[in-house]
Specification:
By secondary structure, the protein is an all-alpha fold. The protein is built from two helices and no strands.
Length: 53
């Protein structure tokens, strides 16, 4: 999921450089949402994860 967030961030940067502001804004929003979902799932897995002895 973090990989997709980075991909959308790169798409947003490239489209912003080329002047496609609508695509850049949408890609930035998608990247932000995916990043926050990743952080939430990461924290949940840390809290509920099983530890190996």
């Amino acid at each position: 999921m973090l990989r997709y967030a980075i991909i959308f961030l790169v798409i947003a940067i490239i489209s912003a450089i080329l002047g496609f502001s609508g695509i850049a804004g949408a890609a930035t929003d998608i990247a932000r949402i995916l990043f926050f979902i990743f952080i939430i799932l990461f924290i949940v897995s840390l809290v509920t994860g099983k530890r190996q002895p």
